[in-house]
Design goal:
The protein has two domains: 240 residues, 2-Layer Sandwich (Beta Polymerase, domain 2); 37 residues, no CATH class. 59% of the residues lie in helices and 11% in strands. A hairpin with a 3-residue loop joins β4 and β5. The protein starts with 14 loop residues before the first helix and ends with a helix.
């Protein structure tokens, strides 16, 4: 796809010729599951060998760095959200986007459909975006992904608000698995996007020479937005963890109240049980136990005293 002047999709047969035109800025978005793309990667000089090796090795850790030997191009390994077709809110599972960026060429590669790149391609086709260079296209990619991440965090935050309201009312308790799912989801998001924030900080210190002042300012804005979203992920994780602790405290209090009721009922019925047990003993008709009532009561009292002394010695009571 050409991104200079008027955006247009380049036919497959014209890609080689378009790459030789210095006035065009081009974005190549490739599907790694295609065998032709895999063969092209092994032969082309446009994609550094380092990137090809990272793709084959399955490297998914976020990074943004310069490769000075290749005209100071920018190497990117980024997280993006899987595109689940037919679902309104989509999925929050993450995939990996490998890319290289030069002043007039951006090549992105992925194994599965990714939300941000598919949205970006759709907007370019419909004329909703008109970037003048691949650098601006890179910023649009960062912004679209951050916008989806923000909408995802807003949905999680609204869910957390509902669960907190249920817990405050005290009538019902939120389901434990809902809180656990939110906490695990936030933990995964933080684990994936926190390294990317570090990578942006490192890139900011060593920018390619072809980044203009406007590009540097926009990168600062991207960095501030990513810092804010990463902090929001941590806040949601902490809220879920605190709410789980509150829920556990409510469950413990509920169980303690029930045990207290059972204990009171036991104490109430203990004299009755004791009296019925004693009065129900009929030793007159048993051989050898005639007139042994007081002996049995003495043995019962001694046994009770022995148990009490044992519990007292072990500091159980």
């Amino acid at each position: 796809m050409s991104t200079s002047g008027e955006n247009r999709e380049i036919p497959l047969v014209e890609i080689a010729q378009s790459l030789e035109d210095p006035d065009l800025s081009i974005w190549l978005h490739l599907n790694l599951s295609n065998s032709q793309v895999q063969r092209w990667l092994e032969k082309t000089n446009l994609v550094p060998e380092r990137v090809v090796e990272m793709i084959k090795e399955g490297v998914t850790r976020s990074r943004l760095e310069r490769i000075e030997k290749l005209d100071d191009c920018l190497l990117m390994v980024m997280n993006d959200f899987h595109q689940e077709f037919g679902e309104k809110d989509g999925d929050s599972s993450l995939g990996t986007l490998w890319a290289i960026l030069t002043p007039r060429l951006m090549i992105s590669l992925r194994n599965h459909p990714l939300r941000t790149t598919d949205t970006l391609r759709f907007d370019l086709r419909n004329g909703q975006l008109n970037p003048y260079s691949t650098i601006e296209l890179f910023h649009e990619l960062i912004d679209l992904r951050a916008e989806y991440l923000r909408s995802l965090l807003m949905r999680l935050s609204e869910t957390m608000d509902d669960l907190e309201e249920i817990l405050l009312k005290g009538k019902d308790l939120p389901e434990h698995e809902n809180l656990g799912r939110i906490r695990i989801q936030c933990s995964r998001l933080r684990r994936q996007f926190a390294p990317e924030l570090i990578a942006l900080h490192r890139l900011q210190k060593r920018l390619p020479y072809w980044f203009s002042e406007d590009d540097k300012l926009r990168l600062n804005d991207d960095l501030d937005l990513m810092s804010f979203l990463t902090q929001e992920i941590s806040n949601l994780y902490d809220r879920a963890k605190i709410l789980q602790d509150e829920q556990a405290a409510h469950v413990a209090e509920f169980n303690a109240r029930n045990l207290q009721v059972l204990s009171v009922m036991t104490v109430i019925f203990l004299p009755m049980t004791l009296l019925t047990g004693i009065m129900g003993m009929n030793m007159e008709d048993l051989p050898g136990l005639k007139e042994s009532f007081y002996i049995v009561m003495t043995l019962m009292g001694a046994a009770g005293a022995a148990v009490y002394a044992s519990l007292k010695y072990k500091k159980i009571i």
